[in-house]
Amino acid sequence: MRTETAWVFTLAGTIFTLALVLGVWKWKQSLTSPDGTAHRYVNVAHNAGLMYSFATAAILAPLVQFSGWPSAVNIVAATMVIAMFLVTIGNYIRLGLEGETDNQMRDRRSSLRFVLEALVVCEIGGTLVLLSGFVSAQLL
Length: 140
What we know:
Oligomer: single chain
Mean pLDDT: 96
Distance between the termini: 22 Å
Radius of gyration: 17 Å
């Protein structure tokens, strides 16, 4: 296994562990809530953590492992994607802790546009780099 693939799997496991901890937070809020549900963004943080951990392990890691690009390119591309996953989960955690909104788009901060643009560039761009490395090595 390539070293960068091992790092991606390690980060996938870390994100999965974070999601499990967020699940405990969600469960505790559900137990104490009059309607039996957690705050919307506690739920979203938990679900996003689960989905991002699986996307990291099931998609990003194999793309890195079988990429034709040099390790440095794979590391930068994977780091861009995973960093944005973590920023997103962190934002959902913040919104859950604050408990002030159930819709971040309706009640957005001025910095949200910049963050969303960075997410688009880093997540899609990093994935396209990894995907093109995979295609160049495995299909061409």
